[in-house]
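Cast an eye over my tokenised protein here and flag anything odd:

===
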Amino acid sequence: MFRLMAFNVFTDNKDDHAKNFSFICHEGRWHLAPAYDLTPVPEGYHGEHATSVNGNGKPTIDDMLIVGESIRIHKKRGMEIIDFVREHCKEILSKDYLS
């Protein structure tokens, strides 16, 4: 879910509302469903993401790291995930996250 959050932020998918996240129960265990509706929506709702990150509709990397720490993803691991997503999505990154 943290990786999906980073993807949505970096690719300007601001249409990241609750109906775009699902879970699947398999043999009594819940798992995040494969991601869907991953369409860049740079305008969003008043220029912000539908799902805020750390209460911010225009989230920063620090906001993502704070959310990660709140779900026991250490800052170092959070940065590794962020860097992975940024590296693998560099061709479609929002201009705000190119560096």
